[in-house]
Amino acid sequence: MSSVQSPHGELVGALYRDHRGWLLGWLRRNVACAERAEDLSQDTFVRLLGREQLPAPREPRAFLAAVARGLLFDHFRRAALEQAYLAELMLIPEAEQPSPEEQHLILEDLKAIDRLLGKLSSKARAAFLYNRLDGMGHAEIAERLGVSVSRVRQYLAQGMRQCYVALYGEPT
């Protein structure tokens, strides 16, 4: 890894050289698939290269594990999303099911939405989905989440902002 890729490429390179083997072992203990562990290891370092700022961590292994844990969580969440989608497909009569190509596109869209909403807190994400997918009103969502109606409005605004940013970029 060269410093041309990012302003802190040398730091990431040192972390990679010194701790990649340890991180890969840690991931292999947490993921059944060796190839997935390898991918997550690489994704961890790519994520670090993409950061605008990267101070040298005092505890490199704990730092790398925290970054990898977030990626691991995303991986498991997307796998659960895929399983839920496939389970729902099984409820549709075969003649009405989308083609394999359409199924793939739908799944990719679901993963993109999941990444988008993954930037929200769990309650904000739940509020947004309850409102947009289930048609629940503010008071009903507030009761279900155990928050105020004004908090639900804030959560919905956060969700709408994420959608706006995804479609149009950051407002100027």
Automatic annotation (TrEMBL):
Residues 15-80 form the RNA polymerase sigma-70 region domain. It comes from the Bacteria. SUPFAM superfamilies: Sigma2 domain of RNA polymerase sigma factors, Sigma3 and sigma4 domains of RNA polymerase sigma factors. One of its GO terms (biological process) is DNA-templated transcription initiation. One of its GO terms (molecular function) is DNA binding. Residues 111-163 form the RNA polymerase sigma factor 70 region 4 type domain. PANTHER family: RNA POLYMERASE ECF-TYPE SIGMA FACTO, RNA POLYMERASE SIGMA FACTOR FECI-RELATED. NCBIfam families: PRK12523.1 (NF009175), sigma70-ECF (TIGR02937). This is RNA polymerase sigma-70 factor (ECF subfamily). It comes from Pseudomonas putida. The lineage of its organism: Bacteria, Pseudomonadati, Pseudomonadota, Gammaproteobacteria, Pseudomonadales.
